[in-house]
Design goal:
The longest helix has 16 residues, at about 15-30. This protein has a domain at about 10-60. It starts with 8 loop residues before the first helix and ends in a 6-residue tail after the last helix. The chain has helices spanning about 10, 15-30, 35-45, 50-55, 65-80. The protein contains 5 helices and no strands. The chain has about 90 residues and is mainly α.
């Protein structure tokens, strides 16, 4: 799908206003949860690893893997091991 956006003249003077608007859409969609990581990366034509780099370059860590996620993953791993579904 192609979408046309009318930008104010001051924004249209930026070096690449279309890309800038697209990046803003992807970032805000990702931050709000309207777009998944995968979807936001696709909007920008990036792989998931490239999108991670894109976010890091802009110091956007809203959904970065943190201590809480690590603890949850470790608990899941321990549960799977206890059930015999994972080996050490």
């Amino acid at each position: 799908m192609e979408i046309t956006v009318k930008l104010p003249d001051d924004l249209a003077q930026h070096a690449d206003p279309g890309r800038e608007a697209l990046e803003s859409l992807a970032v805000e969609g990702y931050r709000s949860g309207a777009l998944s990581h995968f979807q936001a990366a696709r909007v920008l034509g990036l792989s998931r690893f490239e999108f991670d780099g894109f976010l890091k370059e802009r110091q956007i860590y809203d959904h970065a893997y943190g201590e809480k996620e690590l603890e949850e993953d470790l608990a899941t791993l321990q549960a799977l091991r206890a059930e015999g579904k994972m080996r050490e």
